[in-house]
Amino acid sequence: MIPVDIVASVTLVYFGLLLAVAFYADRRHQQGRSITDNANIYALSLAVYCTSWTFYGSVGRAATNGIDFITIYLGPTLMAFTWWFLLRKMVRISKEQNIGSIADFISSRYGKSAWLAALVTLFAVLGIMPYIALQLKAVARTFDLLSDPLVGTTTSIHYLPIAHFKFDTAFAAAALLSLFGILFGARHLTSSERHSGLVAAIALESLVKIVAFVAAGLFITYGMFDGFGDIFRAFMTQFPERADLLVIGPGNDGYSHWFTLTFISMMAVMFLPRQFHIMVVENCQEEHIRRAMWAFPAYMFLINLFVIPIALAGLLMFSGDTHNADFFILTLPLNNGDYWLAMLVFLGGFSASAGMVMISAVALSTMILNHLLVPVILKLQTGDKDLSTLLLNLKRACIVVVTFLGYFYFRLLGESAALVNIGLISFVAASQFAPAAIGGLYWRRASFKGAAAGLVAGFVTWFYTLLVPSFIETGWLSRSIIDQGLFGMAILKPTALFGLTNFDVWSHALFWTMFLNIAAFITGSLLSRPGRAEREQIVKFVDVYEKRDEKIQRRRMTKAPTVMEFVNMMTKFIGEKQAHQAISRYLGDKEIDAKGSLSEEELVKLKRFAELTLASSVGAAPARIIIDNYLSARGSRMESVFDVFGSVNISRNASREQLSVLYDAAHAVASGGSLQKILDEILKIFTDQFKFDLCVIRLLDADKQTLTVRSQRGMSSEHFGESERNLTMDTYIGETFLTNKPTIINDTENIDKRESARIIHEHNISSFAHAPIAVEGETIGVLSAFSRTAKGVFTEEFVELFTSLAGQVGVAWRNAQQTERLITLREHQREMEIAKNIQLGLLPKVVPEVPGVELAGICVPAQEVGGDYYDYLSHPNERLDLVIADVSGHNVGAALLMAETRTFIQSRSIHLGSPENILKAINQFFYDDLTQAELFITMFYLQYQADTRRATFASAGHSPPILWRPAADSVQQLDAEGLIIGVRKEYPFEQIEIDLQPGDCLLLYTDGVIEAESEKGEFFGEERLIELVKSTSDQSPQQIIDEIFDQVRLFTGQHNFRDDVSLVVMKIAE
Amino acid sequence: MRAPGNRPLREAWMIFFFLGIVMLNYPFLHIFNKNVLVFGIPLILVYLLVGWPLSILVVYIFSLYLGRGSDGEPPPAEDSGEESQ
Q: Could you give the number of structural domains in chain B?
């Protein structure tokens, strides 16, 4: 025997290993790198089918009943044949419908009936809880065998010397296992019942099981004996009377018994709650089924290979004593002194029990919570309290309760017959689910009433033919029921119902339960019709593989739309007038009857035209959707496969509401508000209709090259909603942006980008989608929607809607861009206009009266604002000042500078006296401003004393004015040395004086005149100007000016000038 | 998603399934249920313990063909499945 503390500590260490593995697997799963998403792990996890009943019970059964134990494993092997079709279909449906348990599965098929779910749950609990007791019993017994229990107790109480405390093995096991269940099956309340840690632990346990069993088998067969042949020979020699252990039972009994066991194990491997859970709910990829199909049978074969040798060896070693036959695999090595092997075997058996208890507890508690407790809670519920913590704790409580109920069952019944047969009884119970489940998958007529009837009939019969006899064996019920039948009616004998005698109890039970179950199921289904909700589910179950658009075809009508109907549709969006105009333009010269139908070809063209017309007001993407939907709603032959509003599963009202989302969004875009308002409005429309937890519009910030949040709805102060996103393929949003393709994640259990996984799981997102926002093929942002509660929202049809909405956002953005550009342009124009007005305001409005002088002046600005300025200032004492200037810049700044100059001159010219001083002063005053603005001014200043006819002038780099003296017949250019203003702060300007004669004609001008270009590229030049002055000198100054202008215009061939043209003419009167 | 398997594959499947059921029951069992020893091991046991791995082999071969037959392309490369797809 092994000391208690060693056994206990090894067990605890092993349990700790399981915990560690489970934690690790859960952690990896959260990071998005799940280790359980692996075909081998999946296949191993299925081996939870081999509980301690396999580990110990098979040997026991082989030693007492012979080889029929093998049927329990042959059945599943046979069943595995069908998995690629049957199991895969179940997995596909369960993933799509987000099914979490077998009760869910069955009730979902029959119209999501809560009653059916409760029924299934009840039956499952009834059938499985005793099975848990069996496992705990195995742990307790084997522990006892390894290290004797306390003397004087019969119930596996041990004493741990180190800790000085007594413990009940079964109780301890129950406690540990329920703890494990809580840690890894009820950490949070997720809508997917995926428990990566649990699966990993189960897989490890399966590994330990097979290693332990095979090791023990090899050791016993080849260590203690000389191989298979040796054992059989020895057995035959020693126990020839038991040779019938090695054949199938006599006569018909044997074969029907064989068939029964095979059949129920085929059903059990599929429909036991723990099997369903681990095969369907925990399945990560359908592909894994392909490996499991052969790997799982191979596992079972290997683990069963040594059962018979061990059984026979046990019989041999213990002289045919079978009272502890179950545990031969443990007692044989123990007896032989191989304690480590025995320890290994114990751990193997422990794994077998642990696996079953953990998964069953979790699966059952899920069902109890969801289908028994929640409906009650909801009925009692007052107000919107947050239920999630309550539910989570309830689930944990259920796990504990279920496990401990098993414990109490074991304590109560101990060695009773009831417990021993419980394995097979559970299998028959599981078989009752088969007609409803399999029928539901393949038979369209299967209805709720049929399923309910079948289940009830099956379970009642099961109870009566199996449980009742076992209660009788225990002594709870009177034997007379078996002998004489219920109420003395022989026909109701539990083991010979309706006179079916000579069948072993299992075959008898199987026959009646299946018969009544299936009969009630078929009859019930034929007599009732599936309800509306059920009909939708039927399609989702039976036709899960069919393409959706086949359903759409059935909805179509065959009448094609008329032109008028197109007009009516367009009217909704662009108004009646425009719609009619558009149609008239299109129809033009075509001979089409507006009320009649159109030919196929015409229809196509008209469709395209209507799309284009609408696109101008709502955008291309919405226009296409609207047209296609309009047509498909009318049943046109032309609709393409894509139908935004979905399959027959969505009711008509719903699709209209969804269509309205796009309508409203299109209107918002066309509303002409600010971009921010439109974005917010679009999100509001979207979230009002579809209750997403968060929607975000992110647009590209060109400078930072990141996606920044422009509008969001949902989570208020969450960092998550506000933060920027980089453009990288490592995140889903980055990938969406960079590849211009939408990303849909319907179940965040299955994402693999680590960065995204981290964020997603941090915020408990269940599903999300990103759609690229593109303008003219280029992505400018991403539209995202997130849900914390729902999975599988993003169906193909919904994604089309979502992408169209993103298109709308793109349209809104483009409109805003264009508007911005328009505004900038207009502002620029405005500025130019202001400058021009300023400039024109500077020019003198009135020509001063100076005796003996005739004056005229004009400034014709070029296209853009000019920089010319001239002025005549008349001072007292018959003094007249003429000034003409040209500034280098052509903007508001230059214009303002000129205004300032004018003011300066007008106020200071009197005091400054001479032109030279004036220019000097101007130069000094304006130097800083001019330098800062990088502008220059050319100026010419002339002072004329009318009484003396003396003119004094100075120039700052200006074109020298022309003086024509007809009396002397000479032309003079008044040139004075001077640098243009703004170059050097201090500068002496040359001042020149001349005397004018009556008849003299003086012309001041700016560059624009002489630089006027003809079409041949010739400049007007000073020569021509001089000639012109000469020839027109006898006219009035105004006429001279007009003449010059005419000539220049003639010269250039244009009315407008490239640069400003300013002219001032002064004539000395005769 | 299309329905799994192509027609011939599905039919072969069904045949093997029913064959399996038949071979696992009376009368086939009866044929082997004799008191004959093969290498010291009873015949029925040999029948079962040899037939079982044989049928697993059949399933294995089928699983290979599944990848080829229904998709029209060879089964995907065995990835260890460490990273979820």
A: 1
